[in-house]
Structures are given as structure tokens and as C-alpha cells.
Amino acid sequence: MECHVYYEGDDDPDKCTARRLEKFDKATLYRSMGQVPYGVVLNPHAEQALSPADLEEGLGTLVALDCSWESAEAASFEMRGVHRALPFLVAANPINYGRPFRLTTVEALAGACCIFDEWERAEDLLEPFRWGETFLTLNEEPLRRYSECTDSSDVVAVQEDYLADEE
């Protein structure tokens, strides 16, 4: 599973998970949106949830946007590819620990890998982060259930179970 990141550079470089992924040769960073390859674009504004069915559509390529949550507007995600939103997952990073949907770039990429049943790739991506294993532990059940779905509507049904439990 190839991981690519469009890097906007508007966050704290010391806390930037995308830069650390690049440092450890686990993802390729691009500073120009036009250079980003075609793939499954992880986009929180997408109308369809990511599902195992999307693996073939993205040709084994995941694309994420690394930016501050304050600037993560829909226009920021205008990259070529199949746009999909991640379903309910909880952050394990120190800034947003326990907050749903507030994932770092590495958490988003790892979550997508798990949904595509690429658990070893997810563990490899998270390895440079002391809280990386915690992300997989916190989200183990939903990630397993999402990876067993056939399509986006199944994923949404599983997500609705978790959102109902949250309330």
C-alpha cells in the first residue's frame, strides 16, 4: 500500500506526523497538489465512506492531506482520485486524544490501511510514534468491523452503531 501526502506546511513541524512519515521513508510528501498521484483521497468532506471496495478503485494508493484542522476546508482536498471519508475512529495522538474524527495524518492513513485489511502496513506506519499502538488498540473493534464490510453502506451502518453508543 503506497502512502502519499499533500503537505501544506501550516502546522507545528515538531508535531507533524507527515514529516515524520517522510523521515522514516513510510510516505512520500508533495508540496504541489499537481504532483500528488491518483489514489483514494482521504477527505473528511467526501460524501461516501471508505470501504474495502475502494481498494481496487485507488490502485493500492492512499492519499492524505496534511494541514491544520483549522484550514481543512473542502477546497483543500481538490486532488485527483476517489474521495472517501473515514468512518468513526478515535484519535490517540496527544493533541486530540479520545476525540472522534480528529485524526492526525498517520492515524488517517493507518485507519484506511486497516479498513483495506492491511494491518501490518498500518502497524508499520504507526511504528515511529510512541502512541501509534494505542491508536490501533482504541479502534480495534470498529476497524475490524469496517474491514469486514463489503461496501460504503455497510461501513455507514457500523458507524451508526458506534455513534449511537457515543450518545
Walkthrough of the structure:
The mean pLDDT is 90. A five-stranded parallel β-sheet has the order 2-1-4-3-5. It is α/β, with parallel strands linked by helices. The termini are far apart. The chain has helices at residues 17-23, 54-57, 105-115, 119-126, 132-138, 140-147, 152-166, and strands at 2-7, 28-30, 39-42, 61-66, 81-84. Helix content is 36%, strand content 14%.
Can you lay out the helices and strands and say which pair or pack?
Elements: E1 2-7, H1 17-23, E2 28-30, E3 39-42, H2 54-57, E4 61-66, E5 81-84, H3 105-115, H4 119-126, H5 132-138, H6 140-147, H7 152-166
Parallel strand pairs: 1-2, 1-4, 3-4, 3-5
Helix pairs in contact: 3-4, 4-5
Short account of what is shown:
One of its GO terms (molecular function) is S-adenosyl-L-methionine binding. This protein has helices at residues 17-23, 54-57, 105-115, 119-126, 132-138, 140-147, 152-166, and strands at 2-7, 28-30, 39-42, 61-66, 81-84.
Using brief descriptors, characterize the structure shown.
single chain; EC 2.5.1.157; Tsr3_C; alpha/beta; ribosome biogenesis; globular; S-adenosyl-L-methionine; five-stranded parallel β-sheet
Number of helices: 7
Strand element count: 5
Number of domains: 1
Rg over C-alpha atoms, rounded to the nearest angstrom: 14 Å
What is the distance, rounded to the nearest whole angstrom, between the alpha carbons of the first and last residues?
Answer: 35 Å
In helices, the fraction of residues equals 25-40%
Low-confidence stretches: none
Give a short account of the largest sheet. 5 strands, parallel
The backbone outline, from C-alpha atoms, is: globular
Our estimate of the beta-strand percent is: 5-15%
Succession of helices and strands: EHEEHEEHHHHH
Strand order of the largest sheet: 2-1-4-3-5
- The overall pLDDT average reads 90
Structural class: alpha/beta
Pfam families: Fer4_RLI (PF04068), Ribo_biogen_C (PF04034)
Keywords: Cytoplasm, Ribosome biogenesis, rRNA processing, S-adenosyl-L-methionine, Transferase
Catalytic activity: an N(1)-methylpseudouridine in rRNA + S-adenosyl-L-methionine = N(1)-methyl-N(3)-[(3S)-3-amino-3-carboxypropyl]pseudouridine in rRNA + S-methyl-5'-thioadenosine + H(+)
EC number: 2.5.1.157
